[in-house]
Amino acid sequence: MNFTLDVTDTPFSLAATVKTHGWFQLAPFRWDNATQTLHWAMQTDEQPPFVVTIREGKQLQPVGARLELQTERSGAQIQKDITNKVKHVFNLNLDLREFYRISEHYPILNRVLGKGMGRLMRTESVYEDVFKSICGTNVQWKQAVTMINNIARLGSPASGTDLRIFPKPQQVLQAGEQFLKDTGRVGYRSSYLIALCEHFTKPDPLQTPVENGELSYPELNKYFLGFKGIGKVTARYLCALYGRFDELAVDSLVISYMTKTHFNGVRPDVKQIEDFYAEFGRWKYLAYWMEFILNEGWNPDV
Q1: Where are the domains of the chain?
Q2: Which of 124, 130, 172 is nearest to 150 (CA)?
Q3: Which fold has domain 2-111?
Q4: Closest by alpha carbon to 118, among 102, 100, 105, 101?
């Protein structure tokens, strides 16, 4: 089945959105830089997983883009399910007009609009985003990629490919904590991941409101802080993936960038960094994040 999804009335670039951070390097995704194609293993029902390929087609006027999708599955319900997942993972329901208006008057960030940037790629579920975030704490990103993709081998494979969907909580629990330590090499994080998986084997009344963007920033931040292994910085990072950018997740990388770029080599404190982006209001963290990428503070291909 081949079909298109039009992203209308908002700037959008598939490549720029995919490369907002490192999720594209992790199962169930695979990004082909040569063809600018995202391969994504997904499951929409009880049938075996399958792969969806996504490319960007023509640009729409005055703004927007046409996404071209292809998969071996067919049917109206499959198309609807895939469309909903794409909208969720690319944060397409997030209204960024206020952020774009402010960015137009700011050096560097005035390029965001023209490049179709501003949306952060996330995963299909809050469970998966928290899982990957726990693996990414206090470790080099290269090591986190290895951890997560080793664990992802537990996921069910998509037919005709080596891509797999991300393992369900039950699959991780069945493999056990020793698997996480020996194969995943997650170290002390193993107990946090087990607790997370146990949490999501039971109904979570806030999961759907979180994934639908219905919680305020304080409510969302409190929710993420409730998971073992998620501290203040990582909670703010997760809030950003779910559309709340009220506070920056200031870690050593942020401090290093701000010291070099905006404070003439003098190390700023957290308040000074927050104040620097104060004019962006509830979009503070998004302003930093987009500027950081535009200034090549992070090379997403490494």
Answers
A1: 2-111, 126-241, 252-294
A2: 172
A3: TATA-Binding Protein (3.30.310)
A4: 100
Mean pLDDT to the nearest integer, 234-263: 96
Q: Is the separation of the CB atoms in 15 and 36 below 8 Å? A: yes
**CA–CA dist 202, 224 (Å, integer):** 17
The CATH class of 126-241 is mainly alpha
Task: Give the 3-state secondary structure of residue 184.
Answer: coil
Cα-Cα-Cα-Cα dihedral of 150, 200, 216, 122, to 10°? 30
How far, in Å, CA of 3 to CA of 8, rounded? Answer: 16
Confidence of residue 301 (pLDDT cuts 50, 70, 90): low
Is residue 137 a contact partner of residue 229, using CB atoms and an 8 Å limit? yes
Sequence-ordered list of residues with C-beta below 8 angstroms from that of 141, at least 6 positions apart, any chain: 22
d(CA 65, CA 12): 6
